[in-house]
Structure formats: structure tokens, C-alpha cells
Design a protein that fits this description.
Shape: globular
Number of helices: 15
CATH superfamily of the largest domain: FAD/NAD(P)-binding domain
Bound molecules: flavin-adenine dinucleotide
CATH architecture of the largest domain: 3-Layer(bba) Sandwich
Strand content: 15-25%
């Protein structure tokens, strides 16, 4: 029997799509397929028995502003099983920079810099020159136009080079959007109160204390995290709901191809078996989808993805410097840390624990991944950043390499994604919807990925 809907990829995109379709069309049959042996994609967790669940890096469920999507996301757990993060506590992020953990704002704070006045005057004078968002070729062009030369050279470009191990002229504008670089912190609260009334300035400068953001500026989108630690709980609950709704779930089978009949997708081939479908939803993004449509297709990536390592740690003491931060990005030159996430500060399960649960993400190139002793490097860097004071405080440490890499947001790679989207558009299969990371330009964050996918699904 032909499947009405076949959904490829069982990450949060595939999960929510399958739930939506099976509910909206209760008489249809929906098949969800993933090559991994368990579903969830990047929303999965590692289970360390007595130490509990640790996620695949920092993940929470952020409301998207699209009611349809948000209702599905929130339905994945019972209301009492969620911790709701809202108001000024919705997303407390910091950065480690210039030998110091900055907790007041995730944007570079230049108020104490001798160059502060010239950073502000150059940035302000750029306002009239800002062009449309999507015309910049590189991060260099994008940020020079936004902030002028001095702040870029002194602050932003070193951060970009440290994070992506590439020159800013080789990085696409997306590189500067994956980490919070869009504003600088250069003013007092009183000065900001005036700036908030000016649309141009407000886009450039940040509030000096994220916990005091005026109510009218706080995004009304809440964030959700399981009250018992581990995003895996969301995935497990979703799997149960999908099975209850009669969705056929096929896991651990490689997908050989997506097969066309004229201008229509006719079927997919999974481990040598043909599954016919009337409507295909691929959540593999443009490149992943084109690769299944054309086995000869070789995407012209210029830069390999980073290997993503997550180091999961339990320690005996919580250092005061961490304060109530949910996570911070590390911009310090010479350190491999990308981000450190503190579960005790957003998950009620461990909020009052004597133990301190956290993870560190590292983005490594081939050479680094081959040569680094991950655990000792993690401990060394965490001590340098004062997140742990003494190795003896660490009661548990385990590192994991994620099965998925981090796509390097270089100009060359983004051109390869553009080319894959062009190929998809030229195929014009009208019974195929493509979503997922980079299925559209600059689409990366979970909320944006889901909103974009559902904009397409509601039109079916
Ligand atoms: C290191 C890192 C950090 C991130 N940080 C953030 C963040 O802080 N905030 C945020 O909002 N977003 C973040 N993201 C992005 C976020 O993870 C994605 O937006 C989200 O995972 C998208 O969900 P998805 O279901 O589309 O994809 P995924 O979660 O990647 O799931 C894709 C699924 O497809 C399956 N699959 C892949 N290839 C095939 C194939 N050929 N056949 C069958 N199945 C296949 C995979 O097994 C997987 O289950 C981060 C991503 C990475 C890599």
C-alpha cells in the first residue's frame, strides 16, 4: 500500500511533522524513517545511569512564535514535566573573553575599553549605510558595514577567527549570527533607556544587564526544558505519541535513494525495500535531500564540518563566577571550548543539588580531533576559566563525539548549499517538501528550522 506521507529524518523536524500530519489527516498513513537506530537527532541525550542524562550539547525548546508549532512542541511533555523559562530568565547567556567570564550580557562589553568612544561613534555613523540583510558576501563585509572598522578589527574579527578557525573574509554572514555578535554593549542603563526609542541604535547596542531588560523588550517567547534533566525525555514521549497515532517508524535502516517518476517523487528505497509515497517530507536539508535524489551528486563543499565533542561533567562545587548563567560561549584565543552549559541553572531537577552538572562543547578540525586528549584538555581549559577550581572536585567526566558535525559557515560552503537548493528547485517535485538545517539560506536554529518547515506543511 502506498504511504500517504513519508517523512525522512526523525529529529525534531521529522517528529513534529509526523505528529502534525497524522493528527491533521487521521485516515492517512504516515511513515517516519531515520538511518540512526534511535530517533531524536540532536535532541537526544546520553544516559550515564546514576549521573543521569546529559544532552547532545546545549538544547532547550524555544517557542517559535508560530502557534501551530509551539502547541505541538509543548504537547510533547505534560505541563508539569516542563520547566518554563520566561521573562529575563528565559535565556541567560554569557561569554568568556579577555580572561574573564562576562555574565551581564552575551554581547561583547566594551564599556571599559579605551576605544569605547570610537567604537560607538563609528558604529553610529554606519547606520545610514546599512543595506538589505542578505546582500553581504562575507562576515567581514557584513560586520564592517554594521560597526565600522575599529570594533571589527579589535573585537569581532578575532572572535570569528577563534570560533571558526577561518579568516572573516572567508566566513559567510551566517557565521556572525550563530553566536551573539549582532550588538555591542557600550552604554549604561540610563543611556540605553534613550536608545531603546531609536530603531537604528537599538539594533546595534545591548542592554548592559540582561537581567534588567525592560519588560516591553523581553521576547514573549518562552523556553522550555524538561523538569527532569535530559531532552531525551521529550524524544521518548514523542515516540510514544507517534506510535499511539499510528505512525509507522522505521529506524536504523540506511536510505538508499529517493526515486522519481517524471516530476513526482514515487518512492524511497530503504535498505533495498521500496516504500511508495504520495507526499515526501525530507528534513535532511538541501544537500542531504539532493544526495538521495542523485547518487552521483557531489556537493562542492570547500571546508569540512567540525567534529563536535561534548564533555559531560559532574563536580562537587559550583563556582561563584558562573552565577545564574544557563551557558556561555568561549571567545578566548587559544581555548578549544565553544560553549559551556550549566544544567543546575535551568533545570529544577538539579537546581538544589549539591552536585554541579554541566557540559562543554568543542568544535574541532580533523587535526585537533586526532591529537587532543579531550578530557585533559577540557579540564585544563575549565580550570583556566575558573569553572572548576581543582581537578579533585570532578567526580564524573565523560566525553562523546556527536554523530553529526557542525557545518562550517564559510562562503564556499554556503555556495555549495545554494547550489543544492538550485538543484532542488530545478527538479520541481511538487509532492516533496524539504526542511531542516540550511534547507533555506541562513536556516540553522531549531525555532527557525521548524517555523520554515511548517510554513510549507500547512500549504499541503
Ligand atoms: C553543535 C551544534 C550546536 C547547536 N546549537 C544550537 C542552539 O544553541 N540553538 C538552536 O536553536 N539550534 C542549535 N543547533 C541547531 C539545531 O540542532 C537544529 O536546528 C535542529 O537539530 C534541527 O532539527 P532537525 O530535526 O531538522 O535536524 P537533526 O536534529 O539534525 O535531525 C536530523 C535527523 O535526520 C537523520 N538523518 C540524517 N541523514 C539521514 C539520511 N541520509 N537518511 C535518514 N535519516 C537521516 C539523523 O539521524 C537525525 O535523526 C545546533 C547544532 C549543532 C550541530
Amino acid at each position: 500500500m502506498a504511504n500517504d506521507f513519508v517523512v525522512v529524518g526523525a529529529g525534531i523536524s521529522g517528529i513534529t511533522s509526523s505528529l502534525y500530519l497524522s493528527k491533521k489527516y487521521p485516515d492517512s498513513n504516515v511513515t517516519l524513517v531515520d538511518s540512526a537506530s534511535s530517533m531524536g537527532g540532536l535532541l537526544r541525550s546520553f544516559d550515564y545511569g546514576p549521573w543521569g542524562l546529559f544532552d547532545y550539547g546545549m538544547h532547550n525548546i524555544s517557542a517559535t512564535g508560530n502557534k501551530l508549532v509551539d502547541d505541538i512542541l509543548i504537547s510533547l511533555l505534560k505541563s508539569e514535566e516542563w520547566d518554563v523559562l520566561e521573562g529575563n530568565n528565559r535565556d541567560l547567556a554569557g561569554i568568556y573573553i579577555s580572561d574573564r567570564l562576562q555574565t551581564n550580557t552575551p554581547y561583547p562589553d566594551v564599556r571599559a575599553s579605551p576605544q569605547r568612544d570610537s567604537y560607538v561613534s563609528q558604529s553610529t555613523s554606519q547606520i545610514g549605510l546599512h543595506q538589505a540583510e542578505n546582500i553581504h558576501r562575507s562576515s567581514r563585509e557584513y560586520f564592517l558595514e554594521r560597526f565600522g572598522v575599529q570594533y571589527c578589527q579589535d573585537v569581532l574579527f578575532p572572535i570569528l577567527r577563534k570560533t571558526y578557525k577561518k579568516d572573516e573574509s572567508d566566513l559567510a554572514p551566517l557565521a556572525g549570527k550563530l553566536i551573539p555578535l549582532g550588538r555591542m554593549c557600550a552604554h549604561s542603563e540610563e543611556e540605553m533607556a534613550l536608545i531603546y526609542n531609536d530603531n537604528g541604535l537599538r539594533q546595534l547596542f545591548s542592554c548592559p544587564e540582561q537581567r534588567n531588560l525592560p519588560e516591553y523588550l523581553i521576547p514573549d517567547r518562552k523556553c522550555y526544558y524538561p523538569a527532569k534533566r535530559g531532552c531525551q525525555r521529550v524524544v521518548d514521549s514523542a515516540e510514544e505519541m507517534l506510535r499511539d497515532q499510528g505512525v509507522n517508524i522505521i529506524l536504523g535502516q540506511p536510505i538508499d535513494s529517493i526515486d522519481m517518476n517524471g516530476s513526482q517523487v514515487a518512492s524511497i528505497s530503504v535498505a533495498g525495500k521500496t516504500i511508495q509515497c504520495s507526499q515526501l517530507i525530507s528534513t535532511l536539508g538541501a544537500v542531504g535531500t539532493v544526495r538521495l535524489l542523485d547518487k552521483q551528486y557531489i556537493p562542492q563543499f570547500t571546508d569540512k564540518p567540525f567534529h563536535v565533542y561534548v564533555v559531560n561533567i559532574v563536580s562537587n562545587s559550583k563556582p561563584a563566577i558562573v552565577d545564574d548563567l544557563h551557558y556561555f560561549f568561549c571567545y578566548q584565543q587559544g581555548l578549544s571550548t565553544y560553549r559551556v552549559t550549566f544544567y543546575n541553572n535551568f533545570c529544577s531537577d538539579v537546581k538544589d543539588s549539591d552536585l554541579f552538572y554541566f557540559n562543554m562543547e568543542m568544535l574541532l578540525n580533523d587535526e585537533e580531533a586526532a591529537n587532543l586528549d579531550i578530557d585533559s584538555r577540557a579540564l585544563k581549559e575549565l580550570m583556566e576559566m575558573n569553572v572548576i577550581q581543582n581537578e579533585k572536585d570532578v567526580t564524573f567526566i565523560q566525553h562523546e563525539k556527536l554523530p553529526y558535525g557542525f557545518p562550517r559557515p564559510t562562503v564556499g560552503n554556503m555556495e555549495a548549499f545554494d547550489a543544492a537548493r538550485d538543484t532542488l528547485n530545478s527538479i520541481k517535485a511538487d509532492n516533496m517538501v524539504v526542511g531542516g538545517v540550511l534547507s533555506e539560506p541562513d536556516l540553522f536554529f531549531q525555532g527557525d528550522v521548524l517555523s520554515s518547515l511548517f510554513d510549507k506543511l500547512v500549504k499541503l
